[in-house]
Write a structure and sequence with these properties.
alpha/beta; 11 strands; 8 helices; 265 residues; nine-stranded mixed β-sheet
Length: 265
């Protein structure tokens, strides 16, 4: 593994966490996962634990409100909840090629193992040709046990044939976690598959599922009140880099499969 390509900065002391669940929400179709995880970080008052930068991230910088530049980063936060703690993985970008995606996912799973985590939850969107009135949430995972644990009337497990490959970190974390005997599940919400569309409705449906299963006690309605701020931040900061990541992944998969591929993540 190209360790020199990755810079992981620790913030504060290493906390003692009780079998934490990792929840991943990086940019993807509709930014569904990113919206959900960013909301959880703010709503729960999660503390920053790691900041990750890499030579494999898109070769761009952001210009912030102070007219200064910022490198794209991925961050890990934590929140102690009493019965079971959580790790939250969010950020500006995903790695832009296959090797980097594998390396990044392995490093994240190293962190999960470091804190004796036993579950990984990834979040993403399923791109549709029209805006869904009430987005459905689907799930898939690396074991029937974890699917049965989280499956409910709010979630459908009938995903086979609905979508193509799960591209990027959201998919790789599931597959690689099974090699480490870590159970992993992905929640995928329907959203409009347009690069300018922000999947707030899909994110809300996923948050309802997480709130019910993990007893987060969050006020999901706050998401509606924060839409303008969320839209402004995401459009300015992540739209261009997300599109770069998505197009590179799509082109490579289309070459391999010789057909159109749904991007999920």
């Amino acid at each position: 593994m190209r360790d020199s390509y990755w810079k992981i900065m620790q913030f504060g002391k290493i906390p003692r966490l009780d079998k934490p669940v990792l929840i991943e929400g990086l940019p993807g179709i509709g930014n569904v996962g990113k919206v959900a995880v960013d909301f959880l970080i703010d709503e729960l008052g999660a503390k920053k634990l790691y900041e990750i930068t890499s030579y494999t991230f898109p070769h761009s910088v952001f210009v912030n409100e102070d007219n200064l530049v910022e490198l794209p980063v991925v961050e890990v936060f934590y929140k102690k909840l009493g019965k079971r703690d959580i790790l939250l993985l969010g950020g500006d970008v995903q790695p832009i090629d296959e090797i980097s995606s594998y390396e990044f996912s392995e490093k994240i799973l190293d962190i999960v193992e470091k804190f004796h985590g036993t579950e990984v939850v990834t979040l993403g969107g399923i791109g549709l040709s029209d805006i869904p009135k009430k987005p459905r949430v689907y799930c898939t995972g690396n074991s029937k046990k974890i699917i049965n644990k989280y499956k409910s009337s709010m979630v459908s497990n009938n995903l086979y044939g609905v979508v193509g490959p799960i591209v990027g970190v959201s998919g790789l974390l599931l597959g690689l976690a099974s090699r480490r005997n870590i159970e992993a599940i992905s929640f995928l919400a329907e959203t409009y598959g347009h690069p300018m569309y922000l999947g707030i409705k899909g994110a809300k449906e996923i948050l309802k599922v997480l709130d019910k299963n993990l007893n987060l006690n969050i006020d999901i309605n706050k998401l509606d009140r924060e839409i303008k701020d969320i839209e402004s931040e995401l459009i300015k900061k992540t739209e261009q880099l997300t599109e770069v990541t998505k197009q590179i992944a799509l082109k490579k998969f289309q070459k391999k499969f010789g057909r159109d591929v749904d991007y999920i993540g």
